[in-house]
Amino acid sequence: MRVKYLALLMSSFFATGVMAAKSSVSLEEKLAQLEARLESAESRAANAEAQIQAIQQQQATQAKRAPTVAVESLEPVTAPAVPKLSLSGYGDIKFYGDVEFNMDAASKTGGLTSIRTSANEDWASGNHERWDINGRILLGFDGYRRMEDGNFAGFSVQPLADLTGTMFLDDATFFFGNENNWKIKVGRFEAYDMFPLNQDTFVEYSGNTANDLYSDGYGYIYMMKEGRGRSDSGGNFLMSKTIDNWYFEVNTLLEDGSKLFVDQKYHGVDLENDKNVAYVRPVIAWQGDTFSAAAAMEKNVVNNAYGYYDQSGQWVDQSERTGYGLTLTWNGQKNDPDNGVVFNASTAYLDATDETNFTAGMNGLWRNFELGYIYAHNQIDEFNTANFDADCDNDCWVTDPGDYDIHTIHASYLFPNVMKMKNFNIYLGAYASWVEAHPNEGEANNDDRYGGRVRFKYYF
Fold first, then answer.
1. Angle of CA points 252, 255, 260, to nearest 5°
2. Residue 51: inside a domain, yes or no?
3. What secondary structure does DSSP assign to 27-41, as a single string?
4. Of 72, 115, 255, 408, whose CA is between 20 and 30 Å from 262?
5. 254 in a structural domain
6. pLDDT, tens digit, for every residue of 298-337?
């Protein structure tokens, strides 16, 4: 019995030793595995920290480059009441503008045509030389929203402030449509340009509004602008369609048609506005890689819109006006911005009450230098000299029926990136015009005008 007990005791001892040995080996393996896992976790944590630092540095760099909007308060505020700028979230909002100031020197200001050269300048006549500084600052606010199917809608408003301390408005437009397909536009704006002047800086009669284009007693350079828009007395409604290289546009301008004439005077009579005109202006254009062409027509479709009463009390309609235009453009700067040539050739013809006008012009731009020539022929059939008094201070040269020709040479030069600023340019501009008058009654006579300008243009 003792031998059996001893054998059992010895067996138990050896078994316990073996189990202890196995247990010891298993624990060491577990500790080693745990240590390896800790090292792996530390490595992953270090990699994650490095990635976080890289992202933070990238965000900081982008924040420095991106424009910021800071809202400051003149009064101390608590943290919950800090002012903030909030947007509705309905599409993109864009704020921009430009500064355009001019230093002008010109001969007699009223001798050829209306000198309304922009929306913020009034027509003025006189027989003296002119030296002045003029210009304006434009602020633009645009909104645009595009859907995934290409549908879009938006607006644009552009208030102006000029050096006389007066506020004006350039564009105020609402539009919607489908991108590269169709578009509808309503408001105050200009439709398709059918007489581009290239880098025009100082051509006195290149007015860009539908008002005050015709100055009684002076010549008229017709440029297909009567129904183009941006009127001070009405608004536009435009529909357009794009099909491959073809572009179709119909603009309708509703306004007081007598505002086309300075002081509402035409052929020596005072006009009375009976109802608003409706200019319909269809345009068909083909636009290729470098070459484009466009043909257009504009017509007032409202009869007896404005006119006057003759000595017998009968109404005389003066509102019948129909114009036609064609323009061709070669734009070599699309493929060669440095040495490419931009060339325009345009012609326009107006058939109006008791008057026809023909205008042809061409201009070219190469390496910041622009040169152009414009010819205009006015055929006046009737002119009421009885009521045409000394309003022009004896400076008018259209005082009788007959033929009148106007020749103009204009040039400009651009100094870009002034002080290495891509948004700051200086233009030099000049023009010279001379007229040849051949009235049916009276002697033929010639006259000339000239001017120069320095323009400062800054975009922001």
1. 105
2. no
3. HHHHHHHHHHHHHHH
4. 408
5. yes
6. 999 999 999 999 889 999 999 999 999 999 999 999 999 9
Query: Residue 304's domain is classified under what CATH number?
Result: 2.40.160.10
The domain of 169 spans 97-459
Q: Is residue 207 part of a domain?
A: yes
Strand blocks (E) in 223-340 = 234-243, 246-255, 265-266, 269-270, 272-273, 277-287, 291-300, 306-309, 315-317, 321-331
Buried b (16+ CB within 10 A) or exposed e, 245-277: eebebebbbbbbbbbbbbebbbbbbebebbebb
pLDDT tens track for 225-258: 999 999 988 999 999 999 999 999 999 999 999 9
Segment 266-291 mean pLDDT: 95
In this structure, of 11-15, 74-78, 94-98, 410-414, the range with the lowest mean pLDDT score is 11-15
236 Cβ partners below 8 Å, 6+ apart?
185, 186, 187, 188, 189, 191, 229, 230, 251, 252, 253
Q: Are 210 and 225 in contact (CB under 8 A)?
A: yes
Per residue in 55-103, pLDDT (tens digit) is 667 666 655 555 555 555 555 656 666 777 777 878 889 999 999 999 9
Q: Tell me how far apart the alpha carbons of residues 285 and 96 are, in angstroms, rounded to a whole number.
A: 30
Per DSSP, the residues of 339-384 read: T-EEEEEEEEEEEETTEEEEEEEEEEEETTEEEEEEEEEEEE----
CB atoms within 10 A of CB 337: 8
The answer to whether residue 52 sits within a structural domain is: no
| Whole-number pLDDT of residue 373 | 96
**Residue 199 clears pLDDT 80, i.e. is over it:** yes
The full length of the chain comes to 460
pTM of the predicted protein model = 0.79
The total number of structural domains that make up the chain: 1
> One-letter amino acid identity for 160?
L
Task: Work out the percent of the chain whose per-residue pLDDT is above 70.
Answer: 79
What lies within 8 Å, CB to CB, of 446 at 6+ separation is: 434, 435, 436, 437
Q: Please, what sign has the CA dihedral across residues 259, 260, 263, 269?
A: negative
Q: Tell me, what amino acid is at 453?
A: R
Query: Do residues 407 and 434 make contact, with C-beta atoms less than 8 angstroms apart?
Result: yes
Residues 378 and 205 sit within 8 Å (Cβ to Cβ): no
Average pLDDT value over all residues in the chain:
84
**Residue listed under structure tokens 């000339």:** 448
Which residues 6+ apart lie within 8 Å of 365 measured at CB? 198, 199, 333, 341, 342, 343
